[in-house]
From TrEMBL:
Coiled-coil features, chain-numbered ranges: none
PANTHER family listed in its UniProt record: SULFATASE, SULFATASE N-TERMINAL DOMAIN-CONTAINING PROTEIN
Transmembrane segments: 17-35, 68-94, 106-127, 139-161, 168-189
Species per Swiss-Prot/TrEMBL record: Shewanella nanhaiensis
Keyword match Transmembrane: yes
Residue span, Sulfatase N-terminal domain: 199-526
One Pfam match: Sulfatase
Taxonomic lineage from the root: Bacteria, Pseudomonadati, Pseudomonadota, Gammaproteobacteria, Alteromonadales
Domain of life of the native organism: Bacteria
Keywords: Membrane, Transmembrane, Transmembrane helix
Protein name: Sulfatase-like hydrolase/transferase
């Protein structure tokens, strides 16, 4: 009778201990959240709204609510599980000690030891975490973490042994070992590709990489030694432009070989029903038995997925919840799970997500991508690295010794991140090489857009006296995709390299001319002897020359079109004010039932009418701006500009205007100042040429 009462009292005490642990755990979560709020200027919700422009009504989207509910419930479950581990760890002591006050003291010691371990591990592994305040302490060191982990592990094992019989314990142990081996098999036994008759095709994109920050343009640029070495052994295309300085639009143009007016994606987050998602390049390669993959480590604004024909998609989940979860998730226990083998199941919005920069592991992303490739078939992989994208965060601090501070924070951070993306790129190439994927391969290395930092060297000089109204024209802007006159936003890298037996088969060279990302798809069709179907739209791009002796006049005499994205004045600044962005853009977006944010289809024509449009020809750029009553002519060699209304030189701007008018002729209200009225005959001639097969 006395023994039964003792056991019952112990069981009640263990139950109370679990409840007390859960209560303290939840209070700790609240305290850590308040601490994070005190360290952030904007709340996570306001940041999320600023980035995705979510309207209040769209918060009721079923998919969006389910994504958030899953994250919050899983977060609570993990902390309940942690509370259970702490409670089990107390069990053997409670069997030995009867006094409640001593049991409470033991519980508190074990509880705070666990909290110290998790906080220290978070600070050591993710030092830029807002809750990484224990970094540089003895506990946040390999020896400190090992010692405390070993002590608490033995304590937990003792608790399990005292609570379970041996058969149950053995079953649990074998199950855990099997799961760990299963999820890490690709690390233990990395597979190598067998020889294939068809070349692997890798298109590697680096977000926001400016060519003028590479040794390609200036030998003094030494922040990217691996990229510099790779490019030096490649064929590079000197003057390459992106059709639009936005990632999704740039990639759609690259994969289709067409300008945005023809493939339908005029903005990031374009409604999918307005986009031509059938990609002939992907279709034809699949028919040639290629495994087609698309990988990207940030998906907020790029919705390319299986619906575009790819067999394999690698990266975080696409959805509006990404912005909120990534800004709320910085809690130690969550961070410790983000890069585990189970992370894609547990935290689909955080796993492999560069937008959650505090815990993003670029080398893990590389490993996931390369491990997903086929070892028996040829591969077509489009992969995009986003570490260079704003807000320029990573799980490790940048090295201030590598970059000189000149008062421009964004540019300082960008240069610091150049070193990190350079190492990621080198690691990726080494993985491909070590596993045999470069024994027969084609690589295109590109950037989707540049980045404006309002640098003095980027400024365009006005060549004529300007009126007060004309002088207010912005020719140098922050960011990307918002100003066609900021040359550094549209000037991109494009390099080609062919591998055989792991070695380059062509000499490194620079080819002069005017090129665009739309040239890659037709060039691959030509090199691989692929053909378009009769129902496919023709390519807007050309076949890229591989020789500096090319006699193709197209590379010098062609015109290249570049357009802007959504006009948002509030993001043309070094630091984004979320309230101004919200007031300017909130009415343009919606969150659909699947939880994805998209532009409202009914607002689409009006937004298209607000675009800036331009055409490049030789050294000239002609721009048509909806809020400026004169065409603008830019001399890209002299980095100068002036309104056409005051220009009296011999630039072929009338011919360029005819091209511009013909190319955008179907856009809603694109010619608000009737600049095309005097070129109607030329426009008809050009339009006829464009519409002919």
């Amino acid at each position: 009778m006395g023994r039964a009462l003792t056991n019952n009292a112990m069981e009640i005490t263990m139950g109370r201990t679990f409840l007390r642990t859960v209560t303290l755990m939840l209070l700790s979560l609240i305290a850590l959240y308040i601490l994070k709020q005190s360290l952030q200027f904007y709340t996570p919700i306001s940041i999320a709204e600023a980035m995705l422009h979510i309207r209040t009504d769209d918060i009721l989207s079923l998919g969006f609510l389910l994504d958030l509910a899953y994250f919050f419930l899983l977060t609570i479950f993990l902390h309940l599980l942690w509370s259970l581990i702490i409670t089990v760890s107390c069990s053997p002591w409670f069997q030995i000690i009867d006094k409640d006050n001593i049991r409470t003291q033991i519980w508190l010691i074990i509880m705070f030891a666990h909290i110290a371990l998790v906080l220290s591990a978070n600070a050591y592994l993710y030092p830029t975490s807002l809750l990484g305040f224990m970094r540089d302490t003895p506990l946040a060191s390999p020896m400190g973490l090992f010692s405390l982990s070993l002590l608490l592990s033995f304590q937990f094992i003792w608790g399990v042994l005292s609570s379970l019989n041996r058969k149950v314990l053995l079953t649990l142990t074998l199950t855990c070992i099997a799961l760990v081996l299963f999820f890490n098999l690709h690390r233990i036994l990395p597979l190598h590709q067998t020889a294939t008759s068809k070349p692997n095709i890798f298109i590697i994109g680096i977000d926001g990489l400016r060519p003028d920050h590479l040794a390609l343009r200036d030998k003094k640029n030494t922040l990217t030694p691996h990229l510099n070495s790779f490019i030096a052994q490649s064929i590079t295309y000197d003057k390459t432009y992106t059709p639009q300085g936005r990632t999704y639009v740039a990639w759609m143009s690259l994969l289709t070989g067409q300008y945005p007016v023809n493939h339908g994606a005029r903005f990031n987050l374009t409604p999918p029903e307005l986009v031509h998602k059938a990609l002939p390049l992907v279709r034809e390669l699949k028919q040639q038995n290629y495994k087609t993959s698309y990988a990207m480590d940030e998906r907020r604004f790029n919705q390319i997925d299986h619906e575009y024909g790819f067999e394999n998609i690698i990266g975080p989940k696409i959805g509006a919840a990404d912005a909120i979860i990534a800004n709320i998730a910085d809690f130690p226990l969550i961070n410790l799970f983000v890069n585990t083998p189970f992370s894609q199941l547990l935290f689909p919005y955080l796993s492999l997500n560069r937008a959650y920069g505090k815990a993003y592991d670029p080398y893990l992303f590389n490993e996931k991508v390369v491990s997903s490739l086929s070892t028996t078939r040829a591969n077509f992989l489009s992969v995009h690295f986003c570490q260079l994208h704003w807000p320029f965060t990573s799980k490790e601090f940048i090295d201030p010794k590598q970059v000189n501070w000149k008062g421009n924070y964004n540019h300082f951070m960008y240069q610091g991140m150049l070193e990190k993306v350079d190492k990621q790129f080198n690691h990726f190439i080494e993985l491909l090489s070590d596993r045999g994927y470069l024994n027969n391969a084609i690589i295109y290395l590109i950037s989707d857009h540049g980045e404006g930092f309002m640098l003095d060297r980027d400024k365009l000089i006005a060549l004529s006296s300007l009126s007060d109204k004309q002088s207010k024209l912005s020719v140098n802007s922050w960011g990307h995709g918002n100003n066609v006159l900021t040359q550094e936003q549209s000037d991109v890298l494009m390099a080609y390299r062919r591998f055989s037996d792991g070695k380059t088969v062509q000499e490194g060279k620079k080819i002069s001319g005017t090129f665009s990302l739309i040239d890659i798809a037709p060039s691959l069709f030509d090199e691989l002897n692929l053909s378009l179907n009769k129902s496919d739209k023709q390519f807007d791009g050309i076949i890229l020359p591989k020789s500096t002796q090319s006699k193709d006049s197209n590379i010098f005499e062609r015109n290249i079109f570049v357009e802007s994205s959504l006009p948002v004045n509030a993001i043309n600044t070094s630091f984004i004010d979320d309230r101004k962005v919200l007031s300017e853009t909130a009415s343009d977006y919606e969150v659909r039932e699947n939880g994805r944010a998209v532009l409202q289809a009914e607002r689409y024509p009006s937004l298209v009418s607000q675009k800036q449009r331009s055409v490049y020809y030789q050294k000239w750029q002609l721009a048509m701006l909806p809020d400026y009553d004169s065409l603008v002519l830019v001399n890209t060699l002299q980095k100068s500009w002036q309104p056409i209304s005051s220009y009296h030189g011999d630039a072929p701007w009338q011919k360029m205007l005819a091209w511009l008018c013909a190319h955008y002729r179907d856009d809603y209200q694109f010619d608000k100042h009737n600049a095309c009225k005097d070129t109607s005959r030329q426009v008809r001639e050009v339009s006829s040429m464009l519409s002919s097969p």
